[in-house]
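User: Here's a structure from my thesis project, written as structure tokens. My advisor, Dr. K., wants to see whether a designed sequence matches the one we expressed. Can you design one independently, without my sequence as a hint?
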């Protein structure tokens, strides 16, 4: 897929109501083409946020992070596919059998949706990963391992920190997508993200898609903030292509 600069920025709609979504999306206008609908917004609007975005020709990253036994996750993924979303995700922690089942379903249905897996949430620290997973792997090693499993299972990419994107590209190939939250311009607060990088450096580091929320949606001038980030993306791509 040939990605334009505009296609690479996904704005996270971390809201509870459809009215809030309509206000910010209408304010941003044509500057952004793709939005992330997460669990909070999806549940609070009973899925209407997805319908609204599609009605105005916006693409949707459905960020519900399906994680269950293979059959249940596959049925949930079939729902996402039937919504014709641009992208949706599962948890890589569900294992290769689960991910292979999802991949098989998508192929059987000739799906156009990009199906990706979440590796390590960007809110985790090294200490928390070691304690929670009882693992000798550090964050990068664990993310790399799950990315390879995701690739081998037939899914299209992973959600990862921009700190892991370059190595994942080396392991899984240029056509394997890296979708990176934990991206913050220098002028924005890091909030609850621990492993972060600026948009320009994230692109240089191998990120295909950047997921950005509050630096745009909570900005006094969302359009201006979005354009600043798009400019950084363009600068990062120029360095790669030169």
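Assistant: Designed independently from the structure alone:
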């Amino acid at each position: 897929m040939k990605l334009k600069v505009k296609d690479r920025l996904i704005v996270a709609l971390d809201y509870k109501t459809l009215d809030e979504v309509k206000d910010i999306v209408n304010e941003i206008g044509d500057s952004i083409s793709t939005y992330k609908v997460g669990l909070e917004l999806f549940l609070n609007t009973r899925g209407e946020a997805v319908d609204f975005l599609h009605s105005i020709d916006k693409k949707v990253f459905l960020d519900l992070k399906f994680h269950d036994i293979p059959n249940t996750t596959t049925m949930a993924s079939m729902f996402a596919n039937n919504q014709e979303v641009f992208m949706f995700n599962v948890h890589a922690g569900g294992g290769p059998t689960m991910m292979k089942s999802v991949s098989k379903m998508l192929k059987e249905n000739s799906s156009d949706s990009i199906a990706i897996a979440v590796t390590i949430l960007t809110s985790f620290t090294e200490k928390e990963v070691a304690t929670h997973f009882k693992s000798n792997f550090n964050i990068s090693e664990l993310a790399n391992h799950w990315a390879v499993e995701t690739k081998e299972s037939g899914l299209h990419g992973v959600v990862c920190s921009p700190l892991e994107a370059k190595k994942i590209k080396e392991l899984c190939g240029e056509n394997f997508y890296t979708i990176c939250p934990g991206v913050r311009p220098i002028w924005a607060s890091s909030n609850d993200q621990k492993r972060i990088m600026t948009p320009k450096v994230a692109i240089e580091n191998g990120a295909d898609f950047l997921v950005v929320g509050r630096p745009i949606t909570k900005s006094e001038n969302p359009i201006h903030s979005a354009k600043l980030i798009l400019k950084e993306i363009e600068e990062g791509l120029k360095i790669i292509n030169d």
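When you compare it with your expressed construct, this may help: The mean pLDDT is 92.
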